[in-house]
Each structure stands twice: as structure tokens, then as C-alpha cells.
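Ticket #4471: complex job returned nothing on first submit. Input attached below:
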Amino acid sequence: MIYSSSGISLSDDKKHLLRNRLGKLIRQGGFASYEEYYNHVVEDSSGQELIRLIDRISTNLTYFFREPKHFELLRESVIPALLEEKRRKGVRRLRVWSAACSTGEEPYSLLMTFLPLIEPLNAWDFRLLGSDISTQVLARAKAGIYSKEQIKGQEAIQISRFFERISTGLTIKPAVKKYVTFARINLQEPFPVKGPFDLIFCRNVMIYFDQETRARLINRFHEVLAPGGHLFIGHSENLTGLQHQFKYVCPAVYRK
Ligand SMILES: C[S@@+](CC[C@H](N)C(=O)[O-])C[C@H]1O[C@@H](n2cnc3c(N)ncnc32)[C@H](O)[C@@H]1O
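Support reply: We reran it on our side without changes. The output follows.
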């Protein structure tokens, strides 16, 4: 059920992990057995129980500017070239998708990379989509509240431009947040978005999928990317063995 609904592929050796993650749900719900819990999820026609189950299963680790080489590449070449090309064509539309964005650090890192380079910002139609299957992480992404620890390592100028202080830590400024929309998108299902996107980040989620799901997914990314658009995947992931039409750019970066 987990595989068919989310694409997350759990082999037998993940039984222990599954038991750990589901134990609390099962105890709290007063279920006598896994079977009873399973039936409850299947019978819930609202789909909410399945969402709760997937929330418990997914691994949400993320942090600001994770895999910094990607952000360097964006800043130094990908974004300037993209803006230059759009200017030449007289186009001001720019669309970026952070698929499987977890608690928001990735889309906000993208905003912090893009916004200073888009000049003048108000002349551009710039939007960023952050999506994930988990409603819990999306709620945190939308809130955009982070602790000082999580922001550690950012330059002071960067912090003052993008964050404001609140009693519980730091929050992304509304003037920055307005460029991002968060939505629940299950990458296993048909995309509710058509694009075309100039850039898609889909990092550190395909590791949980099997080859078949990965192949289907990257081909669907290819469809919604604009010609010349980039796909960024995690550095521990690759497209080896998958049939696709992307051109390899550098580790974990591909281009349509
Ligand atoms: C390890 S986090 C990666 C976060 C971020 N992309 C990064 O690299 O730091 C993996 C995320 O994938 C999400 N996820 C798992 N299966 C998914 C699916 N079928 N559709 C969309 N998101 C999924 C999880 O909820 C989780 O937030």
C-alpha cells in the first residue's frame, strides 16, 4: 500500500524501521494488530489516514543550502544565463519547482539565491513552487519559522535581508515568502501542474523509490520542463540505468 500510494519502496530489511515509525500511530489509535490498522487505513475513504501514514513513513531531513555546489552553480552560471536568455527573448516569466521540499529550507535557499540576481525584481513574473507529499512538513514550510541553529552559517547580510526576528526564532519575511506557493503534490501521481518550469529541484527523494518509479518520474519532469530547463537531483542519486532524454551537465545536474 505504501509503495503504490507514494512510490516509497521498503524492502524486508526496513521492517524494523517501519515498526518504529508506525508504533505510535497504532498505539494511539488503539489498534490490536497491524492488520487492524491496515484495514482502518484502507477503509478510510477520506484518504486522511493514508496521508497520516505516509507522513510517518517519509524521511524529512533537510537544511539550508544543502549540497552547496548546486547553489554555487546556480549563482555563478545557471541563473545569469537563464536571465540573459529571457531578456534576449523579451520574456519575463520565471518558474522554479522544488519537488519534495520537506520543511522549506530548500525552496527558501532557492529564493535567497534567485532574488538578489533578478533585476529589477518587480519587472519579472517570478514564482517558486514548493511541494511535498507530507502535510506536516508543508505546514512547517508555510510557517517558515526556523531556529538560530538552523540559520547558522548564513552571512549576516543574508539573514537581515530575508529573515525577521520573532520570539521563537527567525521567520522568512513576507516580502520574500510571497514568491513561493506550497502545495501537496504526490510525485507518484499525475502532476497537477503543467509548467513549463525553468528549473526543477528534486533532491534526496528518489533514493526512496525503485528504478521503475524513478524512470517514470524523471520523464514526467522532462515533460514539464521548458527546453533548456535544468533538473537538479541529490548528489547521492543518479539517472544511470534509466531511459531518459536529459543531457548530463555535471554531477547531479541535467538539462532538457
Ligand atoms: C529527505 S527529504 C528531502 C528534502 C529536500 N529536497 C532536500 O534535499 O533537502 C525527502 C522528502 O520527500 C518527501 N516525499 C517522499 N515521498 C514522496 C512522494 N511520493 N511525493 C512527494 N514527496 C515525497 C518526504 O515527505 C520528504 O519531505
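The radius of gyration is 19 Å. Closing as resolved unless it happens again.
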